[in-house]
Design a protein that fits this description.
257 residues, mainly beta
């Protein structure tokens, strides 16, 4: 049984599917099992309806995957070399490697620090890729943002200037306003304005479960939960205001999936 199969789509490339972790031996559970990374990647070409295979340069579990469509590049960043939860304590071995695929061959880049569970987003017009926050060890989160510039093939870093920072779980971008939006484990929507290099946060009262962006209308959509009520909240990036789009009780959550 394969766990954590992740996909990333690009315009100029086939879709990549990566089997990021080993299967469990028969009769063995997740507990006390060392999960080692794999580098196998299966490629599906939509135009020809054909499958092929390739291999990343580095074997990892649970990297953050994203594509820069203008450049036809797919990125698999960070993750874990291996992991286990056993009687002798956790094995938690994060990676700083970024596997980059251009449709024909792989190259390697490096994050400023080894980490897993990052948010990721792009500014397509500027050829920039952002890997935001993440977890550097079992009990610590990082406020470092790694930025890759595809035009110059260079890496730089930025740092959140918020008073506190929680583990980033999801991130999106709005291309027109040049803003990044990301959420962690607390009741905050974190926003980065690339034009003037300003970071700030907006309290949204409830813990967000997911986030999506709609460039055409300069809007960001948040799924939040409060007292078994699930709501979709819309944030207008031009006016800085929130509105509620839909609310459902727990028994109707399938309608929000």
């Amino acid at each position: 049984r394969f766990r954590n199969v992740t996909g990333v789509q690009t315009c100029a490339l086939p879709i990549l599917f990566n089997k990021f972790s080993n299967y469990y031996p028969p009769g063995q559970s997740y507990y006390n099992t060392i999960i080692n990374g794999l580098n196998d990647v299966l490629l599906y070409n939509i135009s020809t309806n054909q499958w092929s295979a390739t291999q990343m340069k580095s074997s990892v579990i649970l990297p953050t995957a994203i594509s820069l469509q203008n450049r036809g590049l797919a990125f698999f960043a960070g993750g874990l070399f291996n992991y286990s939860n056993n009687n002798n304590g956790n094995i938690f071995n994060p990676s700083n490697v970024v596997n980059i695929f251009n449709g024909s061959h792989w190259t390697i880049g490096y994050l400023s620090q080894a980490k897993v569970s990052m948010g990721s987003a792009t500014f397509e017009e500027l050829d920039l890729v952002f890997f935001i926050g993440g977890q550097g060890s079992v009990a610590s989160a990082t406020n470092i943002i790694d930025i890759y510039n595809a035009r110059t093939n260079t890496w730089t870093t930025s740092q959140l200037t918020l008073s506190f920072f929680q583990l980033v779980t999801y991130a999106v971008s709005l291309q027109k306003t040049k803003q990044l939006f990301f959420i962690g484990y607390y009741n905050e929507l974190y926003i980065y304005n690339y034009t003037n290099n300003v970071w700030y946060s907006v309290n949204i009262n409830f813990s967000p479960l997911g986030i999506a962006s709609f460039d055409k209308f300069n809007q960001v959509y948040l799924i939040v939960v409060n007292n078994l009520q699930y709501s979709i909240i819309v944030y207008d990036a031009l006016t800085g205001t929130f509105s509620k789009l839909i609310t459902r009780s727990e028994e109707h959550t399938s309608e929000l999936q």
